[in-house]
Amino acid sequence: MPVAIITGASKGLGRALAEALAARGWDLVLDARGAEALKEAAESIAGHGTRVEAPAGDVTDAGHRAALVAAARRLGGVDLLVSSASALGAEPLVRLAELPLEGLRRALEVNVVAALGLVRETLPLLRESPAGAVIAVSSDAAAEAYETWGGYGASKAALDQLAAVLGVEEPGVRVWAVDPGDMATDLYGAAVPDDRDPRPAPAVVVPAFLRLLDERPASGRYAAPALLEEL
């Protein structure tokens, strides 16, 4: 069975994608900081009959990243790495003039540095896989100038660039930066708590990610809404 590592998998898009992959028979290594929420998600996802490892921890911790990769090795390797864990930098979001630099550092550490750290740990296994792939969960804030989204958007723009260069440097591995579009997630709720406009559940955009895995287009940046329109 193929094996995926998914960070930020206790809720939101990470959990929805893990559920979909488990339903397809994938074995999974799941990550999140909250041990109880991660345990509940792992037990639910394991109900599909696949093997699930779920060590709780912070992706900015090198030891935790190593533990994730070690768990994947026990399952047989790594065919897919999904960096879905994200930090906003401030909750709720604030203008750049008010953004704490420590918050910006946290967003960069989680969204960029930790993502690259996991890539470095998993690359030998991804190169060995006949269909190795990396998915970096991006945002439209990486490409558009939205008020108060500057710190988070800057971190996602950096992630996009890392993904683009990785795709050039590793031609045998597919590397996709994916903007999932608007979703109803805890992260968005923390970012803009006063916004009550309806948004789709993360499960609605999962078919776009599955399409990438099925069709394996060239490495690059993709928008989930556009992929969904073509289904």
Detailed description of the structure:
The chain has 231 residues and is an alpha/beta fold. It is 48% helix and 13% strand. α1 crosses α7 (202-215).
Could you name the key traits of this structure?
231 residues, alpha/beta, seven-stranded parallel beta sheet, 8 helices
Quick structural summary:
The protein has 231 residues and is an alpha/beta fold. The chain contains eight helices and seven strands, in the order βαβαβαβαβαβααβα. The chain is 48% helix and 13% strand.
Question: What distance lies between the first and last C-alpha atoms, to the nearest angstrom?
Answer: 26 Å
Number of strands: 7
Please give the largest β-sheet: 7 strands, parallel
Give the amount of beta strand, in percent.
5-15%
SSE string, helices as H and strands as E: EHEHEHEHEHEHHEH
Helix content: 40-55%
Number of helices: 8
| Rg measurement, Å | 16 Å
Q: Mean pLDDT score, rounded?
A: 97
The shape, in one word, is globular
Give the SSE layout.
Blueprint: E1 3-6, H1 12-23, E2 27-30, H2 35-46, E3 52-53, H3 62-75, E4 80-83, H4 101-128, E5 133-137, H5 150-169, E6 174-179, H6 186-191, H7 202-215, E7 220-223, H8 224-229
Parallel strand pairs: 1-2, 1-4, 2-3, 4-5, 5-6, 6-7
Helix pairs in contact: 1-2, 1-7, 3-4, 4-5
